[in-house]
Amino acid sequence: IGMGLTGFGVFFLFFGMILFFDKALLAIGNVLFVAGLSFVIGLERTFRFFFQKHKMKATGFFLGGVLIVLIGWPLIGMVLEIYGFFLLFRGFFPVVIGFIRRVPVLGYLLNLPGISSPT
């Protein structure tokens, strides 16, 4: 259920941005994404993840962006939300890149000389 909610949330967010920041689709996507994340890792761990002392700035931007989208200013809200998302999940990006490097076609593209970083 959690993965489905998160997947639909990402779909609605993406579709809402394609349709010129449609307020309703972005609001539904935000609610589904946060609900799906809560179902996947649990309410307590979600709360602990968002409200760690060193992540308060990122949480403020992310949840502030969600609130601003729900109020009705989708462009400003999405900018804040994307910034907060990158601050919140920046520790996961190296893990994701490492996983993608093992996927056959995408790994080849990421290991090209201009893209790969020297290790």
UniProtKB/TrEMBL annotation:
Alphabetical list of InterPro entries matching this protein: Got1, Vesicle_transpt_Got1/SFT2
Origin superkingdom: Eukaryota
Membrane topology: Multi-pass membrane protein
Gene Ontology biological process terms in this record: endoplasmic reticulum to Golgi vesicle-mediated transport; retrograde transport, endosome to Golgi
TM segment ranges: 5-21, 27-47, 59-76
Keywords: Golgi apparatus, Membrane, Transmembrane, Transmembrane helix
Record keyword Isomerase present: no
Entry-linked Pfam families: Got1
Record's subcellular location: Golgi apparatus membrane
Cellular component GO terms, alphabetical: cytosol; endoplasmic reticulum; Golgi membrane
Family classification: Belongs to the GOT1 family.
Function: May be involved in fusion of ER-derived transport vesicles with the Golgi complex.
Name of the protein: Golgi transport 1B
